[in-house]
Amino acid sequence: MKLTSSHPFWSVNNGLPENYPSLQRNVSCDAVVIGGGITGALVAVHLAEAGVKTIVVDKRDIGTGSTSASTALLQYEIDVPLSELINKVGPAAASRSYQLCCGAISTLEQLAARLKIDCGFERRPSLFLARHKREILELREEFRLRRKMGIELEFYDAKAVRARFPFSRPAALFSKDGGQVDPHRLTHGLFVAGKRVGLEVYDRTKITCVEETRRGVRISTHNGCLITARRAVIAGGFESNALLNTGAGTLKSTYALISEPLPLIPGWYQQCLIWESGMPYLYLRTTAEGRVIVGGEDEDFVNAKRRDALISQKTRTLVKKFGRLFPDQPLEVAYAWAGTFGETKDGLPYIGVHRRFRHVSFALSYGGNGIIFSVIAAQILRDYYTGRTNRDAGLFRFGRCGREKAPRRCQRLQDAVNKRICIDDLKKYLHRAR
Predict the structure, then answer these.
(1) Domain 124-176+252-343 in CATH: superfamily?
(2) Nearest to 38, CA basis, from 202, 236, 171
(3) What is the pLDDT of residue 161?
(4) Quick one: pLDDT at residue 175?
(5) Are 405 and 398 within 8 A, CB to CB?
(6) Is 353 exposed, middle or buried (0-12, 13-18, 19+ CB in 10 A)?
(7) In angstroms, rounded to a whole number, what is the distance separating the alpha carbons of residues 8 and 340?
């Protein structure tokens, strides 16, 4: 699957920070991580630092999949509001999910500092804007619930919004906890740090078959190499959907632009992250170089050709929406791109072992704050692989919604071939089965 349009800003701006070889020999390890984006990097570094002999493989150049298209707003807010999430998963699970996301921002900040990764990490507060007056009561309830669970934030009425920004909105939530980062540089920095503790990283290496055995997995590559491992982690993001075929998530197309460098924009209070309610979403942030990133205009993913054909139209819409918020600030677009992301029914990721694959774990960081979910996934999978108990793992398990059951015919195929997952053949079979 083509996950991004041709020129996402991060990979163009950063070039090739590090070189990684393709796999040219048979190797063995404790854990193999399939996917060389931000999720795979976080998981792999956590495993390697815990003493697990780990190998990473990716069919693309490192960090050039969905990671390069990320706008990298680091927010604890989940796509599903806390009040709605309570109705879906219960108050304890909902509150804990929000707390974990809030803590993950600090965890990522500490990790980048400890590993001395120059990735543009900055703390930023976050502003969630209501579009309509009818949302005021909902926002007040959201404020009450978040404050009750210990999250530090303020409620702004229309007057308070107007006092701090050059636009008017009926209400907003201003949260202290938030941040931003260059996801491409962070990914490469994590892999460089991981290599210092024995991590092996291979890109331009396509996986053609994953076979489960009694003791682990055997993985074949496009050039005939074999990887033998006790465990595998699928960190391939939204492409994993084709392998699972269980309705775990749906794919969306999203659009983003980045401006030429600008002087400091007057009225942008504390250079906070801005996220506007409603569908389609609108979100904004700045960069250390004084650029503005604007994203949103999400719609259902059909195919990469249709997604990319809309880039010009979506870019014009995003520029207009920015102009409504900051009418006195001209915006010259430097780059515009499209990407694909996933979302789930409850807004939470899927992390852990699926019942169809005994020796394979998944880190599916579906959602608008995928980087934060990836931090949580790295901690849970590290604990799983090292035999520790992680009390939060059940929050993100497969089957929690009762709708991710494997189709019977797919299960029979799985049993018949002794848990042999041949990627291309399985996709063809699943297509016929539907």
Answers:
(1) D-Amino Acid Oxidase, subunit A, domain 2 (3.30.9.10)
(2) 236
(3) 97
(4) 96
(5) no
(6) middle
(7) 12
Percent residues over pLDDT 70 in the chain? 88
222-250 pLDDT tens trace: 999 999 999 999 998 766 665 665 556 78
- Taking residues 7-35, report their average pLDDT: 92
CB burial of 360-382 (b: ≥16 within 10 Å; e: otherwise) equals bbbbbbbbbbbbbbbbbbbbbbb
Place of tokens 């959907």: 241
| Integer Cα distance of 81 and 212 in angstroms | 39
pLDDT tens for 280-313 read 889 999 999 999 999 999 888 878 888 889 999 9
C-beta of residue 43 within 8 angstroms of C-beta of residue 364 = no
* Mean pLDDT within 139-143: 97
Assign domain 9-69+184-249+347-433 one CATH number from 3.90.78.10, 3.90.220.20, 3.40.190.10, 3.50.50.60: 3.50.50.60
User: Cα 307–309–312 angle (5° rounding)?
Assistant: 110
What's the CA gap between 164 and 160, in Å, rounded?
A: 7
pLDDT for 6: 54
- Numbered ranges of CATH 3.50.50.60 in the chain: 9-69+184-249+347-433
pLDDT, residue 342, reads: 82
